[in-house]
């Protein structure tokens, strides 16, 4: 058996469900250091900081609302999400509009191509966003 075949048959190190690939000697990493621990991984630290800057409860509310919107639009347009026409409903933009009447008008403009009545959807959506806050992007200073 050649020396090259014994090197490649060595098991690759794994940590939990993560798999680390062993690079060629002298390429991209220092030989003998093994896999990078999650504590030293700068990408992991940045991801953690980003999630902390947003309020998780507010993010969860936003996700539930977006899923509800997709479900309602599927019913309004009688199709699955993949077949739905391009409809842009930006929650943050709606939250910037001062009155419910102006918000309703903006939503009606977005739903102009819908042949079904949209008044109930608009009323329900406005009720659901009442009290929500606009999500602000995290500052780039800490990244």
Automatic annotation (TrEMBL):
Keywords: Acetylation, Phosphoprotein, Protein phosphatase inhibitor. The keyword 4Fe-4S does not apply. Transmembrane segments: none annotated. It comes from the Eukaryota. GO terms for molecular function: protein serine/threonine phosphatase inhibitor activity. One of its GO terms (cellular component) is cytoplasm. InterPro entries: CPI-17, CPI-17_sf. The keyword Repeat does not apply. PANTHER family: PROTEIN PHOSPHATASE 1 INHIBITOR POTENTIATED BY PROTEIN KINASE C (PTHR16188), PROTEIN PHOSPHATASE 1 REGULATORY SUBUNIT 14C (PTHR16188:SF6). Belongs to the PP1 inhibitor family. This is Protein phosphatase 1 regulatory subunit 14C. It comes from Liparis tanakae (Tanaka's snailfish). The lineage of its organism: Eukaryota, Metazoa, Chordata, Craniata, Vertebrata. The gene is Ppp1r14c.
């Amino acid at each position: 058996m050649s020396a090259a075949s014994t090197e490649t048959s060595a098991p690759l190190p794994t940590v939990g469900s993560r798999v680390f690939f062993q690079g060629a000697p002298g390429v991209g990493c220092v030989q003998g250091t093994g896999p990078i621990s999650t504590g030293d991984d700068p990408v992991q630290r940045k991801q953690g900081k980003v999630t902390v800057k947003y309020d998780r409860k507010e993010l969860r509310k936003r996700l539930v609302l977006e899923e509800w919107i997709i479900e309602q639009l599927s019913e309004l347009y009688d199709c699955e999400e993949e077949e739905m026409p391009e409809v842009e409903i930006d929650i943050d933009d709606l939250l910037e509009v001062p009155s419910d009447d102006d918000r309703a008008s903006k939503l009606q403009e977005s739903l102009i191509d819908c042949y079904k009545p949209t008044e109930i959807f608009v009323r329900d959506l406005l009720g659901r966003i009442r009290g929500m806050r606009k999500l602000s992007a995290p500052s780039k200073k800490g990244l």
